[in-house]
From TrEMBL:
Phylogenetic classification of the source organism: Eukaryota, Viridiplantae, Streptophyta, Embryophyta, Tracheophyta
Pfam family, one: PLATZ
CDD domains: Bbox2
Top-rank taxon, per record: Eukaryota
Region (Disordered), start-end ranges: 175-233
Basic residues bias spans: 221-233
Protein name: PLATZ transcription factor family protein
Length: 233
């Protein structure tokens, strides 16, 4: 109940499926980076994972083991605001029209609005909901602001993904399509794999290892030398 009250204060009240999948509101309104009440004495007990299937409270890495067959998304921090990586969230919803940023070599989007008292000088683009200044020509600064844009009745906006034929997929279709095309083992470890591989710089395949030295010809080295001859006077 507490979660739903907090969610309504962030993204407004409304239960229509047009506003996004059922897990979107709980994810936006969740409380993250708190110490887990069950594993408070353990390392890595910070609650920064959200289960899209259970839609409950944030999970720590130990609690996530009980959700091993579920879809987990890792919530991160940037300037004291909650963010999620584009590579994780775009599997489930359409994040078009939302400003993206690059942090630690990975694209991210903010979960909720970040209103400014007044836009800075030279600002050309602003969020249509909270009026935050944006560096690029996007309409919204966060997932929550796009949701409020949909609530205003803009029919061009949607969180639904489209298939290769341009048809919008229902949210249950998107989930089943992802589950069918992704091995279970990969689904469980998506947030772990992306977290550990985001800083790799050797994408181009360049290697700094030394070249393999040429083989030494032992046959020639063991050949017996001839009798030396003295040079003529």
């Amino acid at each position: 109940m507490d979660i739903m009250v907090q969610v309504s204060s962030v993204v407004g009240i409304g239960g229509s499926e047009e506003l996004g999948p059922a897990w979107l509101k709980p994810m936006l309104g969740g409380e993250y980076f708190m110490n887990c009440g069950i594993h408070a004495d353990s390392n890595k007990s910070e609650c920064n994972l959200f289960c899209l299937d259970c839609m409950g409270n944030a999970l720590c890495s130990y609690c996530s083991l009980r959700h091993k067959d579920h879809r987990l998304v890792q919530i991160r921090r940037s300037s004291y605001h909650n963010v999620v990586r584009v590579s994780e969230i775009q599997r489930y919803i359409d994040i078009s029209c939302i400003q993206t940023y690059v942090i630690n070599s990975a694209k991210i989007v903010f979960l909720n609005q970040r209103p400014q008292p007044r836009p800075g000088k030279g600002i050309t683009f602003t969020c249509q909901i909270c009026h935050r200044g944006l560096p690029d020509s996007f309409r919204f600064c966060s997932l929550g602001c796009k949701m409020n844009g949909i609530k205003r009745g803009d029919r061009e906006l949607s969180f639904s993904l489209k298939n290769k034929h341009g048809r919008e997929l229902m949210y249950d279709e998107m989930e089943s399509d992802y589950e069918a095309s992704t091995p279970r083992k990969m689904q469980r470890g998506n947030y772990m794999l992306e977290s550990s591989s985001s800083g790799e710089d050797d994408v181009g395949g360049n290697s700094l290892s030394p070249a393999t030295p040429p083989l030494y010809n032992h046959t020639n080295s063991s050949r017996r030398k001839g009798v030396p001859h003295r040079a003529p006077f």
